[in-house]
What we know:
Chain A is mainly β. Chain A contains no helices and 13 strands. The radius of gyration of chain A is 13 Å and the shape is globular. The N and C termini of chain A lie far apart (36 Å). The model of chain A has no long low-confidence stretch (mean pLDDT 97). In chain B, the strands form two sheets. In chain B, strands 2, 4, 5, 6, 9, 10 and 11 form a seven-stranded mixed beta sheet that branches. Chain B has a four-stranded antiparallel beta sheet with strand order 1-3-8-7, with no helix packed on it. By secondary structure, chain B is mainly beta. The model of chain B has no long low-confidence stretch (mean pLDDT 96). The A-B interface holds A 38, 40, 42, 44, 48-52, 55-56, 61, 93, 95, 97-107 and B 35, 37, 44-47, 50, 59, 61-62, 95, 100, 104-114.
Amino acid sequence: DIVMTQSPDSLAVSLGERATINCKSSQNVLYSSNNKNYLAWYQQKPGQPPKLLVYWASTRESGVPDRFSGSGSGTDFTLTISSLQAEDVAIYYCQQYYSIPYTFGQGTKLEIE
Amino acid sequence: EVHLVESGGGLVQPGGSLRLSCAASGFTFSSYAMSWVRQAPGKGLEWVSDISGGGAGSYHADSVEGRFTISRDNSRNTLFLQMNSLRAEDTAVYFCAREGAYDMGWYFDYWGQGILVTVSS
């Protein structure tokens, strides 16, 4: 199984500041035949289902604010929120869909400082 | 607008069975693979099972293999999860989620609100 490890486990950032969440996979999730990284990011607020933010490591889902961006390739990935808003308080998960079983990181709790 | 609505959850004794359903609307159901993902209370996300758009292919996590079976009825736009031999560690909110394409192995672009399954005596 591919193990996904996020860092940090929790993060407090001031409003308007940058937030950076890292995700490392235990195996490469870049599929060489199409040069796509099978890595997604989700946001989950209390009492709600997860919401897709980014897929293919860097493609923003329709309707997601452009302050959210994904980067990285192979085994190391980053989700960046360029200017933190109050509504961004949530738990963020990375997920690989390169191979079965699909696996998620443990989550990063983002709070306002 | 895509809607996924789970039903069938509740309290069940260890060793018992439940069948979850997920009613889909707002898209061509048979054109998309579907998954079940669960979240134990206060914990992270765990993928459980998925099934291709036509229903011919499916996979299950090792933790539920042999106990859970995913299926779908494309004529009724409904996804199912038959859960047998339930254990306390199966207690979780179960989400159905749409995958990004017909074949399995995509991100989850839409999620239901989830349904709670509690396994306890």
